[in-house]
Design brief:
mainly alpha; single chain; 94% helix; 3 helices
Length: 126
């Protein structure tokens, strides 16, 4: 082979290498986006389960308190006490709900930070 043929082959190989790198970069980006969507979906599903459980428990507690209040209908002091207990428990549950929302917000921030780190990493740059 002549030098010119070797240069043409080398140029073709370089071009093919660049094309393959571009395809690989696109595949990596697409896979990252798919994995990210799946991860976010799983987190949202988990949060939904936690919310359902929390609200179901809260609803059960409210129903139980309502039953107790109904039984004590003729006794004013007991009714007032039960209502105060209900208010305290509701306030505690609302506080827990607020703490949960804070954790959810922090997790969302963490996910975004991980996404940014991955995008900035050498693996994502390839």
């Amino acid at each position: 082979m002549q030098q010119q043929d070797l240069q043409q082959i080398s140029s073709l190989l370089d071009k093919k290498f660049e094309e393959n790198n571009e395809l690989l970069d696109k595949k990596i980006d697409k896979k990252f986006e798919e994995n990210n969507k799946i991860l976010k979906g799983e987190i949202i599903d988990d949060i939904g389960v936690i919310f359902r459980q929390s609200f179901n428990e809260l609803e059960a507690k409210i129903d139980l308190i309502d039953e107790k209040v109904s039984l004590a209908a003729g006794k004013d002091d007991k009714i007032i006490k039960k209502q105060q207990d209900f208010d305290a428990e509701l306030a505690a549950n609302l506080g827990a709900h607020n703490r949960f929302e804070e954790k959810f917000t922090k997790n969302d921030v963490r996910i975004k930070a991980v996404e940014e780190k991955f995008k900035a990493s050498p693996v994502a740059a390839q």
